[in-house]
Design a protein that fits this description.
Layout lengths: L1 H27 L2 H8 L5 H16 L10 H28 L2 H7 L3 H12 L6 H24 L8 H24 L5 H24 L9 H26 L4 H4 L5 H13 L6 H19 L11
Helix pairs in contact: 1-10, 1-12, 2-10, 3-4, 3-9, 3-10, 4-8, 4-9, 5-12, 6-8, 6-13, 7-13, 9-10
Length: 309
């Protein structure tokens, strides 16, 4: 009887974990859309700073006393540096050079990047099917970037530089994911997420004030303020909490499949709401990336997890 109850509890926890990851992927998918709106009146640095200031406000109610030792604080600060100022400044600079749809489709490479990181830094290994999926995803990226150079229409269209910089930013986010995963083996996802965002925001604030000065307060349209609040509270605070809570309960490699919601949602919003145009190569490349990521994250041992050695 006790065994049956424990199994049901585990199954419920797993289902909730996958649900949290799926919801995080959905919210993340709107991030480029809101970011593009904010970039109409703000620089990249000021837009990202406002996003994380709103996110920090959203996380204040869940703050708990951290019980981290010196080494763990160093890991947390390293993860925050990679995951907040470095990743987001680069990623949204890339967005300023390309379209929402192209940037979102490039995010489809993240599960594959995650798998490569697992082969290098953890005990996970890619089988033959995994390497085939990786090769296919690389082909998909190539198709999207080549399509961007062909269908670019004046300023504001897709660009090779912007598309590739999105991928570079995703590679940097790998450090944030792996370090957070390691820290959550001994600490609450709420603590890791909240203090990670707050410390990253402090680093971001120092950098932006030094390089760009204080962000403007007056002259911003209500639409931009709504986009900033949504990108901070919905696309950052909520998604990081949901994602970290989810991968604390399910294998991260399996949860990676829900990252595919982001490129699908982002590209759809770009086409429908912002009038982005995708060439045939971009549609085919995006489909290949998503298919490769699905294959990569739904095959292999179910008990595999991304765990720091």
């Amino acid at each position: 009887m006790a065994s049956t109850t424990a199994q049901k509890s585990t199954a419920t926890g797993t289902a909730l974990g996958y649900g949290a990851c799926a919801l995080a992927g959905t919210f993340w998918g709107t991030g480029f859309y809101f970011g593009k709106i904010a970039l109409t009146q703000l620089s990249v640095g000021h837009m990202v700073l406002y996003r994380f200031l709103f996110a920090s406000l959203g996380l204040l109610p869940v703050l708990r006393r951290p019980e981290l030792n010196r080494r763990e604080w160093l890991l947390l600060l390293t993860a925050s540096f990679l995951g907040v100022p470095v990743q987001y400044l680069l990623q949204f600079y890339a967005l300023s050079l390309t379209t929402v749809s192209h940037a979102a489709l490039m995010v489809g490479t993240m599960p594959v990047i995650l798998a490569i990181g697992a082969t290098i830094f953890t005990r996970e290994r890619l089988g033959r099917l995994g390497w085939l999926a990786l090769a296919a995803s690389t082909c998909g990226v190539t198709l999207i970037t080549l399509s961007g150079t062909r269908v670019q229409i004046g300023r504001g269209g897709p660009s090779l530089e912007g598309d590739l910089l999105v991928v570079v930013s995703l590679m940097l986010s790998l450090g944030w994911i792996l370090l957070n995963r390691h820290l959550m083996q001994g600490h609450s996802p709420l603590v890791v997420t909240a203090y990670g965002v707050l410390s990253g925001t402090a680093m971001l604030l120092a950098w932006v004030l030094l390089t760009s000065g204080p962000p403007p307060v007056q002259g911003l349209s209500p639409q931009v303020w709504v986009a900033l609040a949504a990108s901070g509270l919905l696309c950052t605070a909520s998604t990081m909490l949901l994602w970290n809570w989810g991968i604390h309960r399910v294998p991260a490699a399996r949860a990676g499949v829900f990252l595919n919601i982001e490129p699908a949602m982002g590209s759809l919003l770009g086409v429908v709401l912002l009038g982005d145009r995708l060439g045939p190569g971009a549609w085919v490349g995006g489909a290949i990336i998503i298919a490769a990521a699905v294959v990569l994250t739904t095959t292999g041992k179910t008990e595999s997890e991304i765990v720091m050695e």
